[in-house]
Amino acid sequence: MTMRRSLLPCLLFAFAVAPTACSSSRAADDSSLLDTTVTPNVLRDLGFTALAPAPTANANLVSLGRDLFYEARLAPKTAESRGCFSCHGTKTYGVNPTIVRRRNVPTVFNLNGQKAFYWDGRAATLEVQATMAMTNPDEMGHPNVASADAALAAIAPDYKARFKDAFGDEAVSLDRAATSIAAYEKQLVTPAPIDDALTTGNTILTAKQEDGASTFAALCSTCHNGPSLRGDGLRKGRSYQAVPDLGRFDVTGNDADKFLFAVPGLRNVEKTAPYFHDGSAATLKDAITYMAENQAQALLSPEDVENIAEFLKTLTGSVPEIAAAKP
Q: What global pTM score does this model have?
């Protein structure tokens, strides 16, 4: 293994990685994978924390939000989008791998506790994000609030009773629609093997996963931390598109915000390819290799890349029952 280890923390909108010294000391035989010393305490000492359950919520509000999430009539008939689910497939872990526009589609899973939404962080809450999505011509297809309001008014006869159950009266509004959709999305929580390892110890990490966990904790936790391994702030990156994406600058016009992008969570990252804000990495191993070379200045062996990928797979949970089927 050859590397030039950087003292810079993991940056940008994916994850930077560097090899761990212990990886080269592992026995080559497969039997070593059955023997590991990783315990809940060790994982906690490395800085990992378990994912909290979905918050308690008004069942009528969540049910309404679920149906609106799948409501194709919320989008104009001429729009490419046919509703929230068009871009955020719940059977595909909250993304749609077939859609890569100027910016890659982020997941809608495991968003509780997130403090900024969109790659440029322009929405401070999930409710604001839902409102912005419904009034953005590049997302739901509506050019303005009036257009979105008209779409809601058109479906209001089918939903008035549902709004009354959720809010206490039959008024149908954009704010209420966004509130209910956000309430539904907050239920899309996916506990994974790492959570069981952290809380009960019944799930045991393999030696490969242990190496990957140690490397990740040492070099990536500055940006990727907390239960979802997501950073709260925005980090400097670069855009390699033909027309550069200036990130946060597009929102603020502040030169200091050029190439600032939100740090995404890494829950279910195995399932949410392609990667980066521009979708330029097709596979998880491609993303690991790229970030190692370009952010951590590290050249990883195939074994190192494999170990990190194996650890990240412990973050993959099951699609929650509430999202498993279209209503």
A: 0.85
